[in-house]
Amino acid sequence: MKKLIIPFILILVLILSACGNTTKSQSVGDASEGGKSKMITYQSENGPIKVPAHPKRVVVLTGNAGDLISLGVNIVGVDEYAKKSPLFNDPLKDIPAVSDESLEKIIELKPDLIIGSNDNKNLDKLKKIAPTVTYTYNKVDYLTQHLEIGKLVNKEKEAQNWIDDFKKRANTVGNEIKAKIGEDSTVTVMESYDKDMGIFGDSWGRGTEVLYKAIGLKMPDKVKEMTSKEGYYMISSEVLPDYVGDYLIVSKYNDQENSYQQTDLYKGMPAVKNNHVIEVDGNAFMFNDSITLDYQLKYFEEHFLK
Asked: Alpha helix locations (H) across the chain?
């Protein structure tokens, strides 16, 4: 009888230790495996923060929805401006719009990760709902921002692969465009708001990153000077000709008033006379995430080279 007891105890020990290991590996494994979700430490701009290794329910309060969609990350709540982009119509079709003020709505969505902006309200309250990582707009350049999102959701390799590929494609398109319009041709990007207008620097969405950084086109000196501080500059329509280069990119919205385009002042600008105006959908061009950048690159390729 004693001989039987010893092997039985050994088997019991083995089973228990195996169970222990299973429990352990589950606790650091994927949430879908039934255990506690594995956490990783992300080095955010505010220091290290523990986040899920494989986030399953992400609320995005910034303009980075496209980065997450392209990386295959599930979004459960999104900024209202992202909902306006026609590029995200399908992936965000059933996703509710939320803001930093709709805390109850966010709680109901049961997020396991919240991506916010450094100037969001209620950040302390958001942090109690789920791990909350914030970014400061333009603190890092647009490609680094995509890489940071990749690191945050544990998809750094995929993010880096897209960046490398985008750079190659943009370089090719840039060379073709410069060969056609000339190395020294200048481009201005603008938007109209009632009686005021905004002109944009090289990192304010609206295609500016693609035009000035990825493709390498030049902006007029005056635009460069006036946008260097804030990234954009507000002007009145009367002085628009002082800022418009050889080419003009006009970011338009359905609900805006565009009567300035019928004025002699506008029609008299060389860019307009030479048919060097490219109009874009403001909602599709607003962001600088990977999906939007791909779309902008293709759009500029088609319109500059047609």
From this structure: 2-27, 65-70, 80-84, 103-108, 123-129, 142-152, 156-181, 208, 221-227, 264-267, 270-273, 282-285, 290-305
Q: How far apart are CA 51 and CA 23, in angstroms?
A: 20
Give the containing element (helix H, strand E) for 59.
Answer: strand 58-60
Output 161-170 pairs: Cβ under 8 A, ≥24 positions apart: 162/70, 162/290, 166/214, 166/290, 166/293, 166/294, 166/297, 167/143, 167/214, 169/297, 170/210, 170/214, 170/215, 170/297
Give the chain's residues under pLDDT 70. Answer: 1-36
Closest CA to 239 of 196, 206, 203: 196
DSSP 231-250: SEEEEEGGGGGGT--SEEEE
What element of type H or E holds 75?
strand 75-78
Helix/strand/coil for 171:
helix
The phi-psi region of residue 98 (left if phi > 0; otherwise alpha if psi is between -120 and 50; otherwise beta) is beta
Note the pTM of the prediction, 2 decimals.
Answer: 0.86
Maximum Cα–Cα distance for the chain, whole Å? 107
Token look-up 């879908």 returns: 32
- Taken in order 252, 256, 262, 267, the sign of the CA dihedral is negative
> What pLDDT, in 10s, does the model give residues 208-261?
999 999 999 999 999 999 999 999 999 998 999 999 999 999 999 988 888 899
Alpha carbon distance 228, 125 (integer Å): 35
Q: Are 163 and 148 in contact (CB under 8 A)?
A: no
Asked if 18 and 10 touch (Cβ cutoff 8 Å), the reply is no
Q: How far is 147 from 213, CA to CA, in rounded Å?
A: 17
